[in-house]
Every structure is written in C-alpha cells, then in structure tokens.
Amino acid sequence: MSRNTRSQARHHAVQAIYQWQMTGQGLAEIKDQFLLEQDTAKFDIEYFDTLLRGVPNNLDALDEHLKPCLDRSIESVDPVERAILRMGAYELVFHPEVPYKVVINEAVEQAKVFGADQGHKYVNGVLDKLARSVRKAERN
Description:
By secondary structure, the protein is mainly α. It has one domain: NusB-like (N-utilizing Substance Protein B Homolog, Chain A). Helices cover about 75% and strands about 0% of the residues. Helix 1 packs across helix 2, helix 1 runs parallel beside helix 3 and helix 5 packs parallel to helix 7. The N and C termini lie far apart (about 30 Å).
C-alpha cells in the first residue's frame, strides 16, 4: 500500500478512536460503520483495523507512556487531541517499523485537520518527548 493509503487509514482511525472514546461503542460496530461510509479503495483497511484495535486494547500501557510527557492528566486533554496522542503513542511503542518522524508528522497533520487551533503544537511536543524515551536508538 502507498504512503497515502496509510495516511488515510490514520485519518479514519483517529475519527473512529475519537468516536469510541466519546460513545463507548463497540469496535466492530465502529469499524463496520466506517467501511460502509468510506471509499475503502482509498485507505489501507488492514492498518486502519490495526490502529482501531491497537489503541483500546493497549489503552492502559499507552496512557502510562504518555503520562510523563503530558502537562495534565490524559483525561483533561482535549478529546480529539487525546485520540491523536493515543494513536501516535501506539505507533511509537508498538510499530517500530514506522519511523518516529513519520508518526509525529502524521499526528501533527491530524491535529491540524481535527484539533483545536494550536493543538498540533501540543501534539508535536508530547509525541516528540515520547519518541525520545521509546525510540532512543532511532533518534541517535
């Protein structure tokens, strides 16, 4: 799959994770809804599914990784930015094959599209801090 289909997978996954956070709806139901409503030829469905399942299934670990990088509790972070941070943390921690710069850049782009006015700067700072601890070898 091309880089663009991966970007689109992230784009949809952020929306789906946000929906899950806000509604508590089942992951299968959310996935089915997205597959029904979106042009599936334009995104990497497998990676979308990996992200959509990976964040909730590793939520406690992700929040623990994020905690020292945040200036407030994860619950008090804007819900859109929380979804983006959790997805970025998931990729940084569990997908070392994705370069950390790609993870951060993609998260910043998602924050520019979906987040608050200056939210992308916050997302960038938090994920950069996290990358320093979980991707030490790659950053040297």
